[in-house]
């Protein structure tokens, strides 16, 4: 007779294998022996999805480090052009000397020489940078110290990359192999060590994992810490507010909001009290900086005889972002089925990046985990990644062109504008696909496999208490449905009977 454990395991829904439902994933799997077998799918061997994906992520990160080798061996130090022609630029070694770490200055408290005055990064990122400086051996030339500083940061960022891959793998319990999209993302590997963004991305991915497990306080604390490392994560609280409103989960939202606020204050308040000018530099710098690389604002400015001033751009960017927020809120309240949290989280961060006055190449790191959770479809993900890789090469070739003088080596301004257009359109394309999934839930690859919102925590399967338009009308009546009876909210039923 079968054991109780085997009976219980057989009663659990089977994991979803991308190679069984995604043509691109199936075709790509032929390179490594074909689609997943039963043992790999169920994770019954030592090679569980989490272990495999973590190792793949570390391997891809290592390849990204190899790609930076020409700069490590001199490109960062001898001539500005080679770090662009080899596409291996990184802020890390330059800011080791430029922001006082080489001189032992304390971020936010000690003034820097020159116009910058203070470190222009949020507090938790500043702590990360300072810890890396403690791990950097003293003595030797400044160049040697810069190299060691980059190595120390790369090691810490590799840990962040592994955390991101593991968190995404575990967030959707029935879709662990979607984490390979994160691990294999080429733009992720190429941009991972340009700056310190991976710290905030790792904390955000961990927060999403905690919310999927119903731990709203842990979610809030991690999201607050992520916001203390980079500004963008707090935006996720907006879509979460609308979704909790629709589902009536006010207590859980209040817990998350309180946890985020307290965690952010614990990190920031000491620096605010004792070094306010240094603490506020990040916020004043963000307001005062002009239009910069990667944004459509730069294309407009470089094609205008009278470009807009910084204050005007700030105002217009804020208006555009508020319009996007209103549109996402309307989408959340009127969609025929309550959108998944990951879908709206991706849309709000993408809107922030697209409307911002700067779209740096490493900003793709913010979107990769959310894109995988929002739409784990290999074709669309790879189209977007191709656009981001094109921009990654385009910006460095453009900088090579502007620093090569009369030699004009690299990509001229018009070509760079095409590269900007590529990564803007790639991000917009993925946004359109996510919005389509929200409006047509039966096209959503996650819901087609028989789930509601696996990253939604308390929102998963919850009934609606407030909705507008089509969202207020039941769209999946039980009597018309022949598949599994799974409550999605307000009388709706699962529409996953559609075969893949």
Explain what this protein looks like in three dimensions.
A hairpin with a 2-residue loop joins β1 and β2. The N terminus and C terminus are likely disordered. The protein is mostly helical and about 500 residues long. α8 crosses α10 and α15 packs antiparallel against α20. The chain has a two-stranded antiparallel ribbon with strand order 1-2. The chain is built from 23 helices and 2 strands. It has one domain. The longest helix is centred in the first third of the chain and has 30 residues. The radius of gyration is 24 Å and the shape is globular.
The count of β-strands is: 2
| Tally of discrete structural domains | 1
Q: Which percent band covers the strand fraction?
A: under 5%
Largest sheet geometry: 2 strands, antiparallel
Low-pLDDT runs:
1-11, 475-500
Estimate percent helicity: 55-70%
Order of helices and strands: HHHHHHHHHHHHHHHHHHHHHHHEE
**What overall geometry do the principal axes of the alpha carbons give?**
globular
Q: Provide mean pLDDT, rounded.
A: 86
What is the terminal-to-terminal distance?
Answer: 34 Å
Count of alpha and pi helical runs: 23
Membrane topology: Multi-pass membrane protein
GO molecular function: hexosyltransferase activity
Keywords: Cell membrane, Membrane, Transferase, Transmembrane, Transmembrane helix
Family: Belongs to the glycosyltransferase 87 family.
């Amino acid at each position: 007779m079968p054991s109780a454990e085997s009976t219980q395991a057989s009663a659990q829904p089977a994991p979803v294998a991308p190679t069984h439902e995604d043509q691109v994933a199936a075709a790509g799997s032929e390179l490594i022996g074909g689609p997943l077998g039963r043992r790999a799918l169920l994770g019954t061997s030592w090679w569980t999805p989490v272990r495999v994906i973590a190792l793949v992520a570390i391997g891809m990160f290592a390849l990204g480090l190899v790609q930076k080798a020409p700069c490590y061996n001199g490109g960062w130090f001898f001539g500005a052009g080679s770090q662009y022609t080899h596409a291996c630029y990184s802020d890390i070694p330059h800011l080791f000397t430029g922001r006082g770490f080489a001189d032992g200055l304390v971020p936010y408290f000690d003034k820097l020489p020159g116009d910058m005055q203070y470190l222009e990064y949020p507090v938790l990122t500043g702590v990360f940078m300072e810890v890396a400086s403690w791990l950097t051996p003293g003595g030797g030339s400044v160049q040697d110290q810069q190299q060691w500083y980059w190595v120390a940061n790369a090691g810490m960022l590799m840990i962040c990359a592994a955390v991101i891959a593991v968190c995404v793998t575990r967030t959707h319990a029935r879709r662990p192999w979607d984490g390979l999209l994160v691990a294999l993302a080429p733009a992720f590997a190429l941009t991972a060590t340009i700056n310190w963004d991976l710290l905030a991305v790792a904390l955000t991915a961990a927060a999403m994992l905690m919310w999927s497990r119903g731990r709203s306080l842990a979610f809030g604390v991690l999201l607050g810490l992520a916001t203390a490392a980079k500004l963008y994560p707090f935006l996720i609280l907006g879509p979460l507010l609308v979704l909790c409103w629709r589902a009536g989960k006010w207590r859980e939202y209040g817990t998350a909001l309180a946890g985020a606020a307290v965690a952010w204050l614990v990190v920031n308040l000491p620096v605010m009290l004792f070094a306010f000018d240094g603490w506020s530099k990040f916020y004043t710098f963000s307001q005062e900086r002009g239009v910069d690389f990667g944004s459509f604002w730069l294309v407009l400015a470089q094609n205008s005889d009278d470009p807009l001033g910084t204050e005007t751009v700030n105002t217009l960017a804020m208006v555009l972002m508020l319009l996007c927020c209103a549109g996402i809120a309307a989408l959340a309240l009127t969609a025929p089925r309550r959108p998944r949290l990951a879908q709206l989280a991706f849309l709000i961060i993408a809107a922030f990046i697209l409307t911002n006055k700067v779209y740096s190449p490493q900003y793709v790191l913010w979107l990769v985990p959310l894109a995988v959770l929002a739409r784990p479809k290999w074709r669309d993900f790879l189209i977007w990644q191709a656009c981001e890789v094109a921009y990654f090469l385009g910006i460095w070739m453009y900088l090579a062109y502007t620093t090569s003088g009369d030699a004009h080596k690299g990509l001229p301004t018009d070509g760079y504008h095409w590269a900007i257009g590529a990564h803007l359109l790639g991000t917009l394309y993925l946004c359109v696909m996510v919005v389509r999934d929200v409006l047509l839930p039966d096209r959503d690859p996650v819901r087609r496999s028989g789930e509601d919102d696996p990253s939604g925590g308390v929102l998963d399967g919850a009934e609606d208490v407030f909705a507008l338009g089509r969202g207020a009308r039941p769209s999946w009546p039980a009597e018309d449905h022949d598949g599994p009876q799974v409550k999605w909210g307000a009388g709706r039923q699962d529409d996953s009977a559609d075969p893949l």
